Amino acid sequence: MHARGDLHVGDVLVTHTATLEGHPHPVTGVGDREPSPKGGQRRSYVAGVLTRPLIRDWVLWVALVFAGIGTLSALTASDQAKAVRHTNDLDLIYVVPAACALMIYALGGPRRLVHALQQRTRPARRESAALAPPVPFDSLTSNAVDPPLWPPLTTPPATTPTAPPAPTGGGGPSGAAPGSRSVAAPVRPRIERVPAAPVLAPDKVMAVARESYPLPVALQVRLLQQSLEAKERYQKVIDVNEQLLLVLHTTAVAWAAGAHSTTPAIAAWATAVQAGGASAGHWRAVVHSVGGAARAWSPPIPGMLEALSLKKAESPTVAMNAIIEERNRSQHGDAPTTRHEHQVRAQALEDHLVVALRACSFLADTRWFMTERISWRKDSADFSVTGLEFAGDHAIPERVRLTSVTPLLEDEVVVLLPDGVVELAPFAVRQVCEKCGNEELHYLNRIDGRGASYRSLGVGHEVIVTERTTEITAALSRLQIGVG
Question: Could you tell me the residue ranges of all domains in the chain?
């Protein structure tokens, strides 16, 4: 297992944000225009009439009074006028609205002019304009900097001791004593408290794990969310924890093998594989041992060491250990029997599981991938890689295409990282299950005279592989070298 070079995802729409020099805002196709001070204050008279309260608009009341008088005169016309009713109807339809509009806007124009003059001569407006001088153009170009998102830590400038005053007349009550010096009192720096990052709610943690974590974990999380009975949820929490532990364990072992390194716990696991099979205790010890030993391993797995180094209340290993102890307790005769007991113990296990999933958020950026076809591209001097991505709760993996600057083996399971690749083979393979007939991910369980025994992630079906016995034995031997 060797650490590979850079890997770039292909056929994926990537959006870049262009920025102006010295300006952090993204550049878009349409320029952002600031409204002019005068244009922002101008409003048409039509809009003013429509938006002003009716009680305060005396022009509108005058227009309504004249409209009422005109309407009343038309309705109370004499008998001779009624003979020309058609003319009266035309007056109501055309003349009255025209007269109203003429009175409204003829009287409203001077009123608007007076209002504009009052606004220009108001003292408060002149004072505000004097207090806010215009911003120079230079500050809007290369020197423009947006205010920080959080207040910075502010520390006052350091104070320097002042020189002692020269003695006058041998000192005295009012003079300074010889050799004395005046020093400014120290000032404690004022530290602004920065709000901590929000902690994801349990349902949000489950949603992220189901959408982005490797396939074995995401599928079990989906089954947990779909469980309704307390007894079923109790068992599904244990299943999710087991898949999470296996994913971390397999990644750690392959990482150590690719970096040509090992730990005592990994060496003990390799010995157990050759001596009848490893257990959950070996997986747990391997994950726990990676926290301090993998700082020099390459390529780095972003976030894994930080997650495994968290404190007790947030540590994923402590949370997974609590679930493993509950599983052992259940298998040794102390399983919950009543519905209430199932609810209480299932809720306690879910709390531990949320802690473990939240701490292992780096798994959302570690993509499990199986190579299918690799071809050399002469023009760009790299490799085109087509394969299946095992991410999220999709039972059918998604086929994607990548580009790699270093060659990869076909039909192998790898972990894609920002700075390289970790080859999971031969510790994890994709084989057709003989019991269910599905092609599934399998992890190495033991090796004996029959061959290598793999178990499917999620289901637990066993598959015997005889073609890779020599490769597996050599890999296990390398993991045991250098450990006394």
Answer: 54-124, 202-480
